[in-house]
């Protein structure tokens, strides 16, 4: 295999370890199957077809691979959740609905290296026994949908898809299914409803764990694009060898996407946990703009809790405990969780001291108010209330108590909804209020304290008052 | 205007339906995409046609149309622009981009609301709406014109961008 060279200005950074993004922005690379085959493409599929399906799953388990879509759940373990006595058909869905704000990685795999995804997907289908698979691509990637469909027909023509793949006796059909612009379709049960032709209202778990009751009520595995690509490399390297990449419990590589207030935003594939937030921001992204300081970082997509630039984080317990500054945090699943946030989907948004925190939170709240599916009351109403209150804070027409109301609304959403969107929409508000209360309060107006500010509460107050007055007139003492 | 689905398009739709051997109801989204691509938006007739095709009650199709932001019930311009509104793009200036596009494209957004997110400009050449995260956060502000994607569209590039669409 030749060493890739990259297009001008697109060379990987020295800190990168390119496995999944090896062919992204590569000189002379294209999406055709011939180009892919020239580099040994579909070799891992042939290798996997010579193994027992259970062996493939065991390699993925041994690799320690954790899902790259956001939740970070071990992929191999997810695969084994299909009931052992299952007699129904099994389906696999690739979640290519990339839409978590701050995340832009699957876009490049779909547009530039579709056969890598297909190879990983076919291996995964073989491992879990799926003979029908869908790639759910968000509607806003129309070109990607065409590229992947072309790749599917090429793979079929070469005998990597369809009946009796490479003489193994294994059959598989793959189709592209396009979304229609709804963020909630990235939630796996919402995605399944959408694929069934309905509104993407997430299903409640239990009992609707997709691995047991998914698409058409049959066992279904839903994996992210990047996750499926890793499967190919795990088969190539072997699970144990793959697990040497990254750090224990946080194995392999992952793609980090950096946006916001850095000089050189972009995507970087690194060994998980081998680089720190500081290396990522300062070395790989060229640091902040002249004279600016980090105010905050959202480390794993907009749903992840915000981290303050000047905060200290205590990691570990007892004798192992150590204190880290924001820039010393290694970018892995466990450490970011210990810092009170999450690695999520790998989308890192950097916010410098020129930004208004109220404005940032308001932008995020607008997103979630727009994207709530509306199925659960706390989320449907709460996300809109959080938007309205933060609208007021930004407009300078909020009272100081509005900050508490904002917090209270958020805390009445998480844990009270069918799906994790409840947490996704309330965590930004909870964490912004916890960490930037002073700044949010400074944007409110002290002289509005005690006044009712939104039309609904004004109406409610007027109604209560008229009721009270009516009661007073009715409650005249009766002569005995 | 009478609603007729051309034979070619119906053939394409029939082929799409075969992608869902377990339940043809799954083909609701692909059919709506195909119809919207052809007609520009989804009329009542389009909803009824889809329902008849899949042997569903029309409400089962309409509820899908009204849920997804990617489906429109009103005609857009010849070139429909979607500007990313979400955090990273907003930090990079997507609200300024929206203003510049409206100014140069002669589009008035004053009547836009949650239920009518699209504004159509003079002569129906351009229409515009804010979209949520288009997943290119490092290279904002970004926008789409019909199916074409553009990144790093700072307001000074708006004139050039619009001149590509005649």
Question: Your description of this structure?
Answer:
- The complex is a heterodimer of chains A (480) and B (166).
- Chain A contains 17 helices and 13 strands.
- Chain A has helices at residues 33-38, 43-49, 53-63, 75-79, 106-112, 114-128, 142-157, 188-195, 225-237, 239-243, 277-284, 333-338, 357-371, 377-395, 401-411, 421-442, 455-474; strands at residues 90-96, 130-137, 173-178, 220-224, 246-247, 250-251, 253-260, 266-271, 294-298, 307-308, 312-315, 322-325, 347-352.
- In chain A, the strands form four sheets. Chain A has a five-stranded mixed β-sheet with strand order 8-7-13-9-10, with helices on both faces.
- In chain A, helix 14 runs antiparallel to helix 15 (401-411).
- Chain A is globular and about 100 Å long.
- The mean pLDDT of chain A is 95.
- Chain B has 166 residues and is α+β, with helices and mostly antiparallel strands.
- Chain B is built from seven helices and five strands; from the N terminus they run ααααβααββββα.
- Chain B has a five-stranded mixed β-sheet, with helices on one face.
- In chain B, strand 4 (143-145) and strand 5 form a beta hairpin.
- At the A-B interface, strand 3, strand 7, strand 13 and helix 13 of A face helix 2, helix 4 and helix 5 of B.
